[in-house]
Structures are given as C-alpha cells and as structure tokens.
Amino acid sequence: MIVKISDYGDEGSRGYVEYQVSGLSSKQMEFLNGNLAEETCIDNDIFRIKMYFEEALYPFQSDVAKIRMDDFIAREEIEMNVFLSSFLDDMQ
Questions:
Q1: Range in 46-50, 67-71, 85-89 with the lowest mean pLDDT
Q2: How many angstroms separate the CA atoms of 50 and 38, rounded?
Q3: How many Å apart are CA 21 and CA 14, to the nearest integer?
C-alpha cells in the first residue's frame, strides 16, 4: 500500500487532507469505501479518502509545519498507512 497526500487546505472553518492510496486490491478498496466514515471514493485503481479536522487538530497549522512541510506530509502519510493497515486487519 502506498499512501500519498494529494491535497490539503481549508474549507470554511475546517482543515482537510486528501489522500490517494494505491496498491490495494479491489476487495480492499470496496471494504474501506463501505466501512470508513470519512469521505471516500474509488477512482480506477486509486482509493481516495478526504478527512476533515477541527482547527486544533489540523496537522498543518503550526509554524513548525510551515517550515518543515515535507516532514509533516511524510508523517501524515505514514500515520494514514498504519491506520488503513490496521483497519484492513478487520477485513479478515
């Protein structure tokens, strides 16, 4: 599974992060799409998930994040990979 952040920013009063996930089987994508509460969709062989955050929890809001954005993006991609992997463990 490969997780990449494809977009992030603000929508109204909430921050969002959009992820693209590749390397999943059709069955895995369908499981995630049907069982996650977040905004999700399947686009060909890419699973997309969009998460919204309250201001206090938005990962890219700090001054440090603005200076070391690549580090924050990498950390978020790793955390989403771990989250989805543990969620997929429930599939079996």
A1: 67-71
A2: 6
A3: 22
Tokens 């079996």 belong to which residue? 92
Placement of tokens 């992820």 in the chain = 19
Asked if residues 45 and 30 have their Cβ atoms less than 8 Å apart, the reply is: no
pLDDT tens by residue, 6-65: 999 888 888 899 999 999 999 999 999 999 999 999 999 999 999 998 877 777 776 666
| Beta-carbon count within 10 A of 42 CB | 15
The β-bridge relationship of strands 2-11 and 14-22 is antiparallel
Q: Quote the DSSP letter at residue 57.
A: G
pTM to 2 decimal places: 0.88
Token pair, residue 12, equals 């109204």
69-89 and 26-35 helices, crossing angle to 10°? 100
pLDDT of residue 88: 94
Cα(66)–Cα(52) distance, rounded to whole angstroms? 19
